[in-house]
Amino acid sequence: MEKTFLMVKPDGVQRGLVGEIVKRFEQKGFQLIGSKLTVISREQAELHYAEHKGKDFFERLVTFITSGPVFAMVWQGEQVIALSRTMIGKTNSLEAAPGTIRGDYAVHTHLNLIHGSDSPESAEREISNFFKSDELFEYSKVIQQWI
Ligand code: RTP
Ligand code: MG
C-alpha cells in the first residue's frame, strides 16, 4: 500500500488547523499510521527541502519550517501521494482552488499550511527523515470492536 509524508507547517499548528487537516484525510478514507508534534532541526529541514537548495526562497523556507512545532504524519492508502497533493492544492496561493486545504485556508505561498510528498521517492526519503520504523504502525481497522 502506498504511503506519503504529510506535515502541518508551523502556521497550521499556530492557527489551530491540525484537527481540520487530519479530519480531511481521515474522511477521504486514508489511514494514519504515524504522527508526531515536533520542532525540526536546521539539518533535518535542509535535507527535507534539499531539492530547493540554492533557490532564492530556500533560506526563508528553512527559517519558516524550523520556527515552531510542526505536526508530521504518515498516511497510507491507494494513490495517497497524488490524491493528497490534490487535496492540499496548488503551491501558488493564487492558483489554490477553493475546496483544497490551501485554497480554503491559506493566503500566502510561503505560509501555505501543509507539505505533502510529490513522488514515491520523496515519500520514502521524507518518511525516513522524520520517523523511525518503530514509530509507524501497520494495523487493520476493526471498527466494530471499538463501538
Ligand atoms: P511543499 O514541498 O512545502 O509541500 O510545497 P510544494 O510541493 O507545493 O511546493 P515546492 O515547489 O516543493 O516548494 C516548497 C515550498 O517553498 C515555497 N515556495 N516559494 N516562488 C516562490 O516564492 C516559492 N516557490 C515555492 C512554498 O512555501 C512551498 O510550499
Ligand atoms: Mg514540495
TrEMBL record:
List the subcellular locations: Cytoplasm
Q: Which cofactor does it need?
A: Mg(2+)
Q: Which InterPro entries match?
A: NDK-like_dom, NDK-like_dom_sf, Nucleoside_diP_kinase, Nucleoside_diP_kinase_AS
The catalytic activity, as recorded, is: a 2'-deoxyribonucleoside 5'-diphosphate + ATP = a 2'-deoxyribonucleoside 5'-triphosphate + ADP; a ribonucleoside 5'-diphosphate + ATP = a ribonucleoside 5'-triphosphate + ADP
Q: Which SUPFAM superfamilies match?
A: Nucleoside diphosphate kinase, NDK
Q: SMART domains recorded for this chain? A: NDK (SM00562)
Instruction: Tell me which UniProt keywords the record has, alphabetically.
Output: ATP-binding, Cytoplasm, Kinase, Magnesium, Metal-binding, Nucleotide metabolism, Nucleotide-binding, Phosphoprotein, Transferase
Q: Where is the active site?
A: H115 (pros-phosphohistidine intermediate)
Q: Where is the Nucleoside diphosphate kinase-like domain?
A: 1-138
Locate the residues binding ATP.
K9, F57, R85, T91, R102, N112
* Record text on subunit structure and interactions: Homotetramer.
Say which family it is in: Belongs to the NDK family.
* HAMAP family reported for this sequence: NDP_kinase
Name of the molecule in the record? Nucleoside diphosphate kinase
> What is the organism of origin for this protein?
Paenibacillus alginolyticus
| Originating gene | ndk
